[in-house]
Structures are given as structure tokens and as C-alpha cells.
């Protein structure tokens, strides 16, 4: 869709509305990092300069495969920041609806992939701008910092330094094995992707000032798997001092996130090695990277070092990083958890699986008379459940943390006449927060542009001062246990109830019951 000729006109129109235009900077800029000098490329339509493909660690290849990232070695001369570095190992797809071309990576892939990208409106050590580090989603098996809708120019033009990063994925990022644990000085294995993210944050801490950023105002922002990463980084003692704010899109709540302990992760790793007919770590390290794909089913584990306990446990004990947090969901995130074709029969089965003995009460609150009604009932129940889930997480955090939590519910569907069934789908908020409506050829209207400007302003304000509010914006209140509400972001912007009184009571009770352990993530 992005290849249609009409998108060029739309891009020019959106840029004229959303990006402050100034005189073009003709020459590339040079910035000194601790590892060497890097050249940047000035935008032709804004003051923003981009620095792409900056190595933040040594390539994790050969004996460095499945080891913590090693600091990048200094280079001689000037490193070109004109092009993205390779994306981490994954399968590439043109599109997988509802995710069209613009939401997916199309770069070359390699194990040599530990690169980050920076967009800055003022590459000066005196600028002292807030820094936003975006951690991409993709189920821990795909994605990269080079995805079109993650382009940082428009958001940076509002007065922030924007960073996107790559981190190891799938089996390359999250394989645990007894041999790996034994060779580790910390007796851990499997969280290499998280260690990459921490290494990127450490690089930002040490180098971002020369790009115009304030190293003491760093916001981590992640979506989907990136949001789960944000949750893990909030919990990890290794991230202490590297982050001052955090935002998680789809999301953080009381629904269980799949996180095993180290032993279970090692057993999964042994099964993977056996399936590849190798018995020893050296043999596994010698296999070509392509032979290890797709490497699905691997994700962070409670390894005892990066994560001493689950993020939920550390938050409950107030043993995590106490920083301001924003977390939120999309209205149709629940599409990830329901079958493509919903029938009355599958609706009843899902109700029993999710709610157990509460299934009858659930079906009275969300009645369905036919297949179409069953699909809508599942979506609506998922919306209510997600809102209550994140409220309970946030209000629980409020009790034992000093810093506030802000929650939101994003209700605006990207205009898409060909596929109205997807609505406000998982990841659909990203073009709005990034001010990147121009990346998609869609029939945007003024409501979309106003929402994008507001969403980006909330994010920029939050990065600057730990509070999303600012002049000209609807007030966004932090969560308090006494006020079960969230912030609606959509055609309407303002506080919204979590659910009606009866449904709210049902989900409040549900999340204090054993059945909650079987709730879908979304």
C-alpha cells in the first residue's frame, strides 16, 4: 500500500502540517562518540539530523553467540550514519494482516545486528533535550529499529532525541542451556536480548549528550514485545540509573506474561539442541545462523541475574526501578487472543477456559445470540478486562512506589475501508505517537491529525518532565486506587470508565481469583 503514487502527495501534506520546517542544512554533521566519530544526514524538510546504523556492541557472532554483549571497539576515521545496520536474524514478510508493509522490517538480516539509530533536532552537547528510546515489538522473533512507522524524524522535530534499537531475537536472543549457565560468571543464561537492550541504554547514557540529549532524562518506550521488555527493564537491577521514565504500549497489567524460570528455559534449550542433532554448545555455535531459524518459542526468563524474580513480584515488593510509567492498550488488542472465525460454540469454550466456574456469569454480562455477536462479546469483554487489568497493576504500584502511573486506552482505528474488521488493531497507535501518518496511504481526516499531534505531545511532555500533561491538551490524571478510570485517546480524549458497574465488579473479582492465571495476555 505504501508504494502507491498517492502516498507521495499525502507525505508532503502531512509533513507540512506536522513537522516544523526550517532552512535545509546542506552539509552532514559530525558527532564524536566514545568509540569514534560518526556522520549524520540532515533532513531536507526539517532541522532534524539522523544518525543510522551506529554499532553499540561488538557483533555477537562466533564465540560471542549467546554471550552478553561486548562493548564496541573504537574505530578509526568517520563512521557513516547514512544507512541502517542489518536487522537481527528473522524471517522477512511483505505483510501479515493487519500489519501491512509499513509495520514490518524489510532490511537485510544478520547476526551482526547490534545497531541503534538516532534522530535529533539539535546535535549539540548544550541542547539537553529529553531522550526517547523505542524498543520494537514482534513477539521476540521479528522487528527492528528500521521499520518505516518507527522513523523518528517527525517526533524528534517536536523537541526530543529519538533512538530506535535492534536486539537479538528468537533463539539468538533467548536460548538458555546448562552449558551456557555454567560458562556464565553470573550463573545465568537466556536473556541476551534484554542484555542487548541494557547495553544500548548504557551506550545512550555515555554518548547521547553530544547528540543533543540529556542522559539523565531517558524514557524507554516499547510496544508489544517491546512493552514486555519495558516491564522487564523496570524490574532489572541492571537497568538502574539508565532510565528515568517508561512507557509500555500493549502493555502491562495483571494478565500473566509467559516467563519461565531458568531451569525450564534450559530444558527448552536442550530440546532445541536435540532437534538440531547437536549435543554440545560448541556444535550449536558452529551451525550457520540460517539453520537456527525460525527459533520461535524463546523469550525472557527469570535467570537470577538480569531478572532476580518476575517483574510482577519485584514490583509488588518495590524492589524495581521506581520511575514514572505510562501503560495502555489498543481497543482491539484482543484480536490476538480470539480465533479468526468465532462461533457460538468456540465462544462458550473460551468463556469456560478463561473464567472457569465464572463462565455463566461472564456469558450473562456478555451475551451472544449468533457468531457475529460472539465475536463482538469476546472483543468487548477483552476491552473491559484489559482496562481493569492495567488499572489494578497501576493502582497496586501506586501503593508502594513514589512515582505516578498513567494509563490510556486507544480507541481510534486507522482509516481502512478495505478492512474495517481490524478496527484499532495491535500496533495501530504507533503511527500516531510517532507522528508518522504520512508513512501509510490511508484516507486520514482532521481527527487523525489532531490525535497524532496530541499523542506525540503527551509522549514528548512525559519524556521531558515525567508527566504527559501540557498546554492545549486534555488533562490526563495519574491512576489512584480510589478512581477506577483511564485516559481515552481517540476521536474523544479524556477520562473514561473502565467498565460499567456490574462488569467492573466482575473483573475486579476475577483478578483476585485463581482463574486470572488463565486469562489471555490481551
Outline, from the CA principal axes?
Answer: globular
> Which ranges are low-confidence, i.e. pLDDT below 50, for 5 or more consecutive residues?
1-27
**CATH top level of the domain at 1-65 and 88-323?**
Alpha Beta
The CATH architecture classification of the domain at 1-65 and 88-323 is 3-Layer(aba) Sandwich
* Rg calculated over all Cα atoms: 23 Å
- The oligomeric state is single chain
Terminal CA distance: 28 Å
Q: Write the H/E string, N to C.
A: HEEEEEEHEHHHEHEEHHEHEHHHEHHEEH
CATH fold description of the domain at 1-65 and 88-323: Rossmann fold
Q: Which band does the percent of strand residues land in? A: 15-25%
Helical residues, percent? 25-40%
Q: What profile does the largest beta sheet have?
A: 13 strands, mixed
Average predicted confidence as pLDDT: 93
How many beta-strand segments? Answer: 15
The SS-based structural class is alpha/beta
Number of helices: 15
CATH superfamily of the domain at 1-65 and 88-323, called what? Alpha/Beta hydrolase fold, catalytic domain
Quick structural gist:
The protein has 522 residues and is of the alpha/beta class.
What topology emerges from the helices and strands here?
Blueprint: H1 6-18, E1 29-32, E2 37-42, E3 49-55, E4 78-80, E5 115-120, E6 129-135, H2 153-156, E7 161-165, H3 170-174, H4 178-183, H5 192-207, E8 213-223, H6 225-235, E9 245-249, E10 260-261, H7 262-275, H8 281-286, E11 301-302, H9 311-316, E12 325-330, H10 344-355, H11 359-365, H12 371-400, E13 405-410, H13 430-433, H14 446-465, E14 485-489, E15 494-497, H15 501-510
Parallel strand pairs: 2-4, 6-7, 6-8, 8-9, 9-12, 10-11, 12-13, 13-14
Antiparallel strand pairs: 1-2, 2-3, 3-5, 5-7, 14-15
Helix pairs in contact: 10-11, 12-15
Amino acid at each position: 500500500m505504501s508504494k502507491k503514487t498517492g502516498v507521495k502527495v499525502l507525505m508532503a501534506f502531512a509533513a507540512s502540517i506536522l513537522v516544523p520546517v526550517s532552512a535545509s542544512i546542506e552539509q552532514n554533521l559530525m558527532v564524536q562518540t566514545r568509540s569514534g566519530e560518526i556522520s549524520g544526514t540532515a533532513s531536507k524538510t526539517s532541522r532534524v539530523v539522523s544518525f543510522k546504523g551506529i554499532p553499540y556492541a561488538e557483533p555477537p557472532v562466533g564465540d560471542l553467540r549467546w554471550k552478553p554483549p561486548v562493548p564496541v571497539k573504537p574505530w578509526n576515521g568517520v563512521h557513516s550514519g547514512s544507512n541502517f545496520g542489518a536487522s537481527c536474524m528473522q524471517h522477512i514478510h511483505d505483510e501479515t494482516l493487519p500489519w501491512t508493509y509499513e509495520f514490518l522490517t524489510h532490511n537485510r538480516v544478520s547476526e551482526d545486528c547490534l545497531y541503534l539509530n538516532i534522530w535529533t533536532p539539535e546535535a549539540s552537547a548544550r541542547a539537553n533535550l529529553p531522550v526517547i528510546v523505542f524498543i520494537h515489538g514482534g513477539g521476540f522473533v521479528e522487528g527492528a529499529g528500521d521499520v518505516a512507522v518507527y522513523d523518528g524524524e517527525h517526533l524528534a522535530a517536536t523537541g526530543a532525541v529519538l533512538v530506535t534499537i535492534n536486539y537479538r531475537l528468537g533463539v539468538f536472543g533467548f536460548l538458555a542451556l546448562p552449558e551456557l549457565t555454567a560458562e556464565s560468571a553470573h550463573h545465568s543464561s537466556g536473556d541476551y536480548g534484554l542484555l542487548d537492550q541494557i547495553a544500548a541504554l548504557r551506550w545512550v547514557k555515555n554518548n547521547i549528550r553530544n547528540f543533543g540529549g540529556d542522559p539523565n532524562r531517558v524514557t524507554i518506550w516499547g510496544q508489544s514485545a517491546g512493552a514486555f521488555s519495558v516491564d522487564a527493564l523496570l524490574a532489572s537491577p541492571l537497568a538502574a540509573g539508565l532510565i528515568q521514565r517508561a512507557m509500555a504500549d500493549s502493555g502491562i497489567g495483571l494478565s500473566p506474561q509467559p516467563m519461565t524460570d531458568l531451569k525450564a528455559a534450559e530444558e527448552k534449550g536442550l530440546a532445541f539442541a536435540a532437534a538440531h542433532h547437536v549435543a554440545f554448545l560448541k556444535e550449536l555455535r558452529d551451525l550457520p545462523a540460517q539453520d537456527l531459524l525460525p527459533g520461535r518459542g524463546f523469550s525472557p526468563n527469570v535467570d537470577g541475574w538480569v531478572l532476580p524474580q518476575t517483574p510482577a513480584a519485584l514490583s509488588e515488593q518495590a524492589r524495581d526501578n521506581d520511575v514514572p510509567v505510562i501503560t495502555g492498550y489498543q481497543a482491539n488488542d484482543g484480536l490476538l487472543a480470539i480465533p479468526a472465525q468465532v462461533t457460538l460454540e468456540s465462544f462458550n469454550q473460551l468463556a469456560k477456559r478463561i473464567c472457569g466456574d465464572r463462565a455463566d456469569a461472564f456469558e450473562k454480562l456478555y451475551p451472544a445470540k449468533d457468531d457475529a455477536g460472539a465475536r463482538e462479546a469476546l472483543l468487548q469483554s477483552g476491552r473491559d478486562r484489559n482496562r481493569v487489568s492495567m488499572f489494578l497493576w497501576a493502582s497496586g504500584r501506586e501503593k508502594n512506589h513514589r512515582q505516578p502511573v498513567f494509563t490510556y486506552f486507544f480507541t481510534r482505528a486507522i482509516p481502512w475501508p478495505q478492512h474495517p474488521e481490524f478496527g484499532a488493531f495491535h500496533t495501530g497507535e504507533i503511527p500516531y505517537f510517532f507522528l508518522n501518518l504520512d508513512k501509510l496511504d490511508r484516507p486520514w481526516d482532521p481527527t487523525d491529525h489532531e490525535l497524532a499531534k496530541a499523542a506525540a505531545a503527551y509522549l514528548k511532555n512525559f519524556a521531558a518532565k515525567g508527566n504527559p500533561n501540557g498546554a492545549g491538551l486534555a488533562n490526563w490524571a495519574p491512576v489512584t486506587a480510589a478512581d477506577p478510570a483511564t485516559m481515552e485517546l481517540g476521536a474523544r480524549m479524556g477520562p473514561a470508565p473502565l467498565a460499567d458497574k456490574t462488569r467492573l465488579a466482575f473483573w475486579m473479582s476475577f483478578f483476585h481469583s485463581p482463574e486470572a492465571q488463565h486469562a489471555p495476555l490481551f
